[in-house]
């Protein structure tokens, strides 16, 4: 801190001659005075004098000068020019850690007062600069941090609410209970650690976005009872479904509730969870299987006779040795999904209904397993994901180096069993 105080009051190995500095400080050319304000080898009183200069560029140079005295900083904290105060905020926040409102040292106290003035600045940009600089500083002045956390602008409050280690649970609970600005709860939900009481308070609100973020935060310490209550509310809140299903730990009760309403594409993720005991996993799997059957029943083709005719034609092609990967690839390219499903069913000795389950749930792993069972290459399995399941490129399971399937045989057998194949 001694070094900081020395820098705070200027100084250098070869200070500019005092009389010469006085002459330059009174020079009629503002450019000359601004260059003087940049220097680190002038006396503190010269910089203080320049802090009252009529030209805002001169004052801005003083504001950015790390050697400006604390009194000059306090004076500039109330400067009428926004840019001056912004530069001062960026500078002074860098020296804020360790400063305390109760320090006896007058110089440090004045610097702390300047921080408080900047935290109340009428221009959001100035407060934002301060918030960004102090957001992750553990020794930042608590009073300043608490004021920034309650700011009316999210660009100011958000960084502090999300990152500041100075804020404790009591601070956060008070903010949550005080009808905070939109986005404030979401920022709190993103914290690297969200303790139980804070999670409970956010979960009790009506902020759908904040709760979605909280559910998706693996470090959020959400109690089992709280998760169960949220599951009761989640039926028609789609934004909660994916983060809910992907939470690191779920009770059997909550997982079973989710299985009753989440989208088909999430059911397999839910059924494959490893944190459930054998009995709980079986109960969840039973609900998942019933849901898949319901989804499949709703999508059952109405033209049963047409399907029977298609199956008969495909069986004949297979008997004649005409049903191969090239034929399926051509059907894929032309968009003939019914032919592809029926052909895969024939070659894999699986029911068309099972394959439609895989398609309806958009299961990349499932269709890889079907393609493998049908004797198709890993390349065709990738095309099935793109053309038949219509998955985005980021979700595609591509072949391994050398052309092997991206799953092991055990994994593919499990996928087929999951969708109802008989061993």
DSSP summary: helix tally: 27
Query: What is the count of β-strands?
Result: 0
Pick out the low-confidence regions: 1-13
Q: Output the structural class.
A: mainly alpha
Shape: elongated
- Strand fraction: under 5%
The largest β sheet comes out as:
none
User: What distance separates the N and C termini?
Assistant: 74 Å
Oligomer: single chain
Give me the strand/helix succession: HHHHHHHHHHHHHHHHHHHHHHHHHHH
Helix content range? 55-70%
Mean pLDDT: 83
What's the Cα radius of gyration?
33 Å
Structural notes for this entry:
By secondary structure, the protein is mostly helical. Helix content is 63%, strand content 0%. The chain is built from 27 helices and no strands. Helix 3 (30-38) packs parallel to helix 5 (56-64). The longest helix is centred in the C-terminal third of the chain and has 21 residues, at 278-298. It is elongated. It starts with a helix and ends in a 5-residue tail after the last helix. The model is unreliable at 1-13 (pLDDT under 50).
């Amino acid at each position: 801190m001694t070094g900081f105080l020395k820098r705070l009051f200027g100084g250098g190995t070869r200070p500019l001659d005092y009389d010469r500095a006085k002459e330059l400080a009174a020079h009629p050319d503002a450019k000359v005075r601004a260059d003087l304000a940049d220097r680190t080898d002038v006396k503190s009183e010269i910089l203080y004098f320049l802090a009252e200069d009529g030209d805002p560029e001169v004052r801005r140079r003083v504001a950015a000068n790390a050697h400006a005295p604390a009194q000059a900083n306090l004076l500039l904290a109330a400067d009428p020019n926004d840019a001056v105060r912004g530069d001062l905020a960026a500078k002074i926040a860098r020296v804020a850690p360790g400063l305390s409102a109760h320090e006896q040292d007058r110089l440090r106290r004045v610097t702390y007062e300047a921080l408080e003035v900047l935290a109340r600045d009428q221009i959001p940009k100035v407060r934002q600069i301060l918030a960004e600089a102090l957001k992750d500083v553990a020794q930042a002045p608590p009073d300043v941090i608490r004021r920034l956390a309650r700011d009316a602008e999210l660009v100011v409050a958000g960084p502090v609410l999300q990152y500041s280690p100075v804020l404790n649970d009591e601070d956060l609970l008070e903010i949550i209970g005080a009808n905070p600005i939109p986005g404030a709860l979401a920022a709190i939900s993103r914290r690297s650690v969200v303790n139980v009481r804070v999670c409970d308070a956010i979960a009790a609100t009506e902020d759908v976005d904040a709760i979605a973020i909280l559910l998706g935060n693996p470090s959020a310490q959400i109690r089992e009872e709280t998760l169960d209550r949220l599951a009761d509310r989640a039926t028609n809140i789609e934004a909660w479904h994916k983060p809910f299903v992907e939470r690191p730990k779920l009770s059997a009760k909550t997982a079973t509730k989710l299985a009753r309403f989440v989208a088909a594409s999430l059911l397999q993720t839910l059924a494959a969870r490893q944190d459930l005991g054998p009995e709980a996993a079986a109960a969840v799997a039973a609900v998942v299987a019933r849901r898949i059957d319901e989804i499949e029943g709703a999508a059952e083709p109405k033209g049963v006779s047409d399907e029977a005719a298609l199956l008969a034609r495909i069986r004949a092609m297979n008997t004649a040795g005409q049903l191969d990967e090239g034929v399926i690839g051509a059907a894929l390219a032309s968009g003939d999904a019914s032919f592809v499903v029926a052909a895969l069913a024939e070659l894999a000795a699986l029911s068309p209904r099972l394959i439609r389950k895989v398609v309806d749930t958009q299961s990349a792993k499932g269709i890889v397993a079907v393609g493998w069972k049908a004797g198709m290459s890993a390349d065709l399995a990738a095309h099935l994901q793109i053309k038949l399941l219509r998955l985005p490129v980021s979700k595609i399971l591509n072949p391994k180096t050398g052309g092997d399937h991206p799953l092991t045989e055990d994994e593919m057998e499990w996928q087929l069993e999951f969708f109802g194949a008989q061993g």
